[in-house]
Structure formats: structure tokens, C-alpha cells
Here is the input.
Amino acid sequence: MGELHYRGEPVAFETGESALDALERADLGPKGVCRAGLCGACLVRVRAGDVPERARQGLAPRMVAQGAAFACCLVGPGPFDLVDLGDAGTCQATIEVLETIGRDVVRVGLRTEMPLDFRPGQYVVLERADGIERSYSIASLPSDAHVELHVRRTPGGALSPWFFDAGALGQSVRLRGPLGTCCYEPGRPDQALVLAGAGTGLAPLLGILRDALAHGHRGPIDLYHGARDEGGLYYRAELGALARAHQNLTVHGCVLAEPAVDRTLRTLGLGDAVLADRSTLEGTRVFLCGDGTLVKSLKRRFFLAGAASRDLLSDPFELSPKPARVAGA
Ligand SMILES: Cc1cc2nc3c(=O)[nH]c(=O)nc-3n(C[C@H](O)[C@H](O)[C@H](O)COP(=O)(O)OP(=O)(O)OC[C@H]3O[C@@H](n4cnc5c(N)ncnc54)[C@H](O)[C@@H]3O)c2cc1C
Here is the structure.
């Protein structure tokens, strides 16, 4: 039997289970989404307890200093004394840009009330005024005027369709984070880089790519952006301009359905395209972002193709399996 307190009250806690499992069983506190220390849905504040490194991986130093940790990674027996995260690690932001950049993708430009100390490739948990919150990856660099997100419309979704509504412009939202560890680490400037993602998986990849280029990365960089059909790809002109400006960058558009307009696109799945271009991924640093199922399967495949675990970085977009959580509900 372990020891867990939440808001000062004892909660039944088994050795080997996570604090999140115990809290959910007791119908207390946050609910989990990814349950892997990624999505930020289960963040709590630890008042006392020995927090394993994994429960704070990818958290901004500011959030660690405020006691934040992923409840899904706090494993019994504890003891742990937890409370709600409250305002820890949050900042207000205003939606200043809403621009359609793809068939079902909108670019959201946020002005934050204070500079957001993020690394390109990280993500934030965005909360609307009614308490509905979802994670979105950052496509911009810290030096850009806005914190840029790319949001894909999920039909019937609780939050994403809102960004396609002009009424969202000028609205205030709350950001928690930044979170995540899928970032470019300077230091091996001649290493080959492969960046692969489908749909809005391009958002963190764009941040990572621009960061690598800004650091003067010299090795070959191959960006693979995939979609079901050519209408699902976006930012083609922007990526083309980046490739023209940087000799070591090649951009590959990959689609599953035969393209009707752009014959330069490759009719291949992302994994097949990456592996068609090289016999091994040994020594290559790989970044995988977007749909969680796709990212996990590519990660396995690329590991088997020779990529080292430490060189396989990923940002899987895990989806909310639960109905939207509304504050006070
Ligand atoms: C770390 C992380 C980073 C993310 N970054 C981005 C990003 O940069 N851009 C972005 O657009 N999204 C991103 N997401 C996904 C995002 O957080 C939301 O899940 C997404 O916008 C849907 O939210 P919603 O409220 O509109 O739909 P919800 O109300 O959450 O979903 C409604 C229903 O649709 C299902 N569903 C949701 N999305 C899909 C889908 N793609 N395919 C099939 N079924 C689906 C859900 O399981 C649910 O049953 C990220 C997720 C994570 C965890």
C-alpha cells in the first residue's frame, strides 16, 4: 500500500500504480490523456514527495520551480502530497492572427502577456475561457512576433473548430507550458537530419527546422511532409523558399493518393519515402511529429532501420479519448 494525499486528503494508492490512476479511481483532480508524460493534461503540483526525473521531463524550469509534475509518472508507493497546479506555469495570451493556411488548417498567432520562454518544437496547453484545453505545438521561433500554432479542424471537436470562427480573433486564452523535449540540440552540426510528420505535425517540425538552420546546421536535412492527398499539404511555397535559401535542405511532399496538380509530390507513405532514400538510418537524427499512431509506428520502423534511440525524437499528438472537460463541471 502506498501513501498519497490530494488537497490534504488521503487517497487509496497501490504500490506500482500511478498517482493519476489513483486520482481517477477516486474521481479527483485531473484526467489523463496520453498517460505518458507528454500531453500535460494530468499536471499537478507536488508539495512533498520524491519526484522521479521522468515526471518532470520537458517541463520548463519555471514550472519545475513551482513544483509541477506529471501525475501519470508519479508511481507508488510514494509518499506524495499533491494539489492542483493552479496558475503555475501559465500566462495569458491574445489571439491576434487567424489565417487559413491549408484546406483544414488555420495559423493561430498569439501575443503573450510576457515572453514565453520556449524551445522550438515544444508545445503549450491552450485553455479557452470556458475551461476547455488542448495541446498545440509551436511552429515559431522565440524571436518571432507571435507564438504561432497550426490547428487542424477536427469535425465535431470541442476546441479546434473554434479557431475557424472569426469570433475567436481578439479573444484571450490561457497557455500552460512550454512542454516537451522534441527539440534541436546544437552540437553535432554535420549530422544528417530527417524530419517527418503528417498534417499539422509540420508545426513543430517547422520550428525545429528553422532552429537547426539558425544554429548553422551543415549536415543534410530532409523534411518529409505527408498527407492523404495534395490538398492536405500546406506551406508548400514557404518550405520551397526555405529549401532554395539553404542548399542542405530538401523538402519532400508525400501523398497517398495520386496527385492531380503537383507532379513533384511523391506517392508514398512517410516511412516508405524516408527508407527509399537511404539504406540505413544509422547516425541520422530523426524527428517525428503528428498523429500519435503514425509517430509510434514510424519510431519502431526507423529504430529497426538503424536509428539510435537517443537520435529518435518525437512529439506524438495523442487525442483526447474523453468528452471535453469544462471548468467547474
Ligand atoms: C503534444 C500534443 C501536441 C499537439 N499539437 C497539435 C498541433 O500542433 N496541431 C493540431 O491541430 N493538433 C495538435 N494536437 C491535437 C490537439 O491537442 C487536439 O487533440 C485536437 O485539436 C482535437 O481537439 P478538439 O477539441 O477539436 O477535438 P476533441 O473534442 O478532443 O475530439 C473529438 C473526438 O474526435 C477524436 N479526434 C480528435 N482528433 C482526431 C483526429 N485527428 N483524427 C481522428 N479522430 C480525432 C477524439 O478522439 C474525440 O473522440 C496535439 C496534441 C498533443 C498531445
